[in-house]
Specification:
two-stranded antiparallel sheet, 20 helices
């Protein structure tokens, strides 16, 4: 039986041990009592010291929220040359009404420094930000210039198809320590079907740009993620093998998200939770296979869940935070001139649901944090406010996702147990606790290495 304490520690106990724990723990072996005490199932002889340590342990799990927004997403344009059916924000073939003005961009860059977080990650999304590299360059130069006085740790990321990447861009990006994130859905045929372009060569152009970036910026300058479509379900091994072939060290096996315009295509694109679970398990088995062959490859969502289970230091994944990380650890400055609490929230706005807007870009962050929207997001994300969460063994690792509930059911306060977010994560935590329980020494060592929060790369240093 799995037992989870209020500190988030866990043990696997026999029925007899559970009975003894409830009636008379002293009948257990001294070794077992020590393990139970160390994991806060039993009170320590020094209760006051234990209580202080428990408070510290719980605070460490919420550090990414309490430090203020550390991830700042800037959406300079909605322009994109792809026509992906699962796109959550639609796209525009031109900038008419779909690009951020320089004045608004300047206000967004300045707002970032209102966060007290000592480390600031600035991520450019779209659309495709490289189609407006002039705005990206302007923002980076302004932020770096401001940081001469602020002296924060900076990290820049551009999420792009990379089709517009040039050697000149690479020179600038290398000089400012910018990382690139792209999409690889699998082998060429699958990628091109999922992410079509007029020239029907999306995969080839992305891979060519990845090679350019690796040569010009650095071998680890590009990461990739994938989105699982109905077309992907029968190819988990081929998809993982493609990441190995491309020399990538991380793969993020993501399900479809029913946000924005992607929600309109659910009848065509959707699959069941069970279908995704089967696909995910096969993909993860393939990742483990390659690690056993000495090939370094990490499945990102596994690392997020294992971080929750095995590490006292939380990696800060927004969707599993209570109170929510949306708006407290991440903010989105959208091309439309508004600030949103998460990328998914701005996607909802593209289909007319602007209920999660926090306010105009340029509004002080402290004022945005006090809005009715932000207060509702926090209230809807507290595990203690949900009967289902209070009774769930995983409430130290998981949390309601009010943005997901708004997208799926039209209310941040929809019953948590009925949301896809809850149902999917119960299955995932069931699966990973069982994997941890059955793991041999090699697998458990690998899981512990995945569970460690990733250190940021060396920050951009202004010259």
């Amino acid at each position: 039986m799995l037992a989870v304490s209020q500190s988030g520690d866990h043990l696997f106990l026999s029925d007899a041990e559970v009975a003894s724990l409830r009636s008379d723990p002293t009948v257990l072996s001294l070794e077992r009592q020590a393990a139970l005490r160390a994991r806060y199932f039993l009170a320590s002889a020094s209760a006051q010291g234990s209580d202080r340590l428990l408070v510290s342990r719980r605070a460490a799990r919420r550090e990414t929220i309490s430090n203020g927004p550390s991830l700042h997403i800037i959406v300079p344009t909605l322009q994109c040359a792809h026509s992906c059916k699962y796109c959550q924000v639609s796209r525009s073939l031109d900038d008419d009404g779909h690009a951020m003005s320089v004045e608004t961009l300047d206000m967004a860059c300045d707002s970032i420094f209102e966060s007290p977080s000592p480390t600031l990650t600035v991520e450019f999304q779209g659309g495709d930000p490289l189609l407006r590299f002039d705005l990206v360059r302007h923002a980076i130069e302004r932020i770096v210039g401001r940081n001469l006085q602020e002296k924060r740790k900076l990290r820049f990321v551009i999420a792009s198809t990379l089709h517009q990447l040039t050697p000149a861009m690479c020179e600038f990006l290398k000089g400012h320590g910018v990382f690139l994130s792209t999409s690889i859905d699998g082998p060429a045929a699958l990628h091109n079907k999922n992410r079509p372009t007029a020239s029907r060569d999306a995969y080839q152009r992305t891979v060519e740009a990845m090679n350019l970036a690796r040569a010009a910026i650095g071998s680890d300058s590009v990461s990739a993620l994938m989105t699982t479509t109905r077309e992907s379900l029968g190819q988990p091994e081929d998809i993982v093998d493609e990441y190995v072939r491309l020399g990538l060290h991380d793969i993020f096996v993501r399900p479809l998200s029913a946000y924005g315009f992607a929600k309109r295509n659910q009848l065509v694109l959707a699959y069941s939770l069970e279908e995704f679970n089967v696909f995910y398990e096969r993909a993860l088995d393939r990742v483990l296979f390659w690690n056993q062959q000495g090939i370094e490859l990490r499945e990102v969502y596994a690392s997020i869940l294992l971080n929750k289970i095995l590490s006292p230091f939380d990696s800060g994944y927004v969707d599993l935070q209570s109170p929510t990380g949306a708006g407290s650890s991440v903010l989105v400055y959208n091309y439309d001139g508004y600030v949103y609490p998460s990328d998914e929230a701005r996607m909802l706005a593209e289909t007319g649901d602007v209920s999660l807007r926090l306010g105009r870009i340029g509004t002080p962050l402290q004022q945005l944090a006090q809005t009715e929207v932000m207060r509702a997001l926090v209230e809807a994300s507290l595990t203690e406010n949900s009967d289902a969460c209070r009774e769930c063994a995983y409430n130290q690792f998981c949390a309601p996702n009010p943005v997901d509930a708004q997208a799926q059911m039209g209310s941040m306060f929809a019953p948590v147990a009925y949301t896809e977010h809850c149902q999917r994560h119960i299955r995932l935590f069931d699966s990973f606790f069982e994997k941890v329980r059955q793991a041999d020494e090699w697998t458990l060592d690998l899981f512990h290495s995945w569970a460690q929060p990733l250190e940021l790369e060396p920050p951009c240093v202004a010259q």
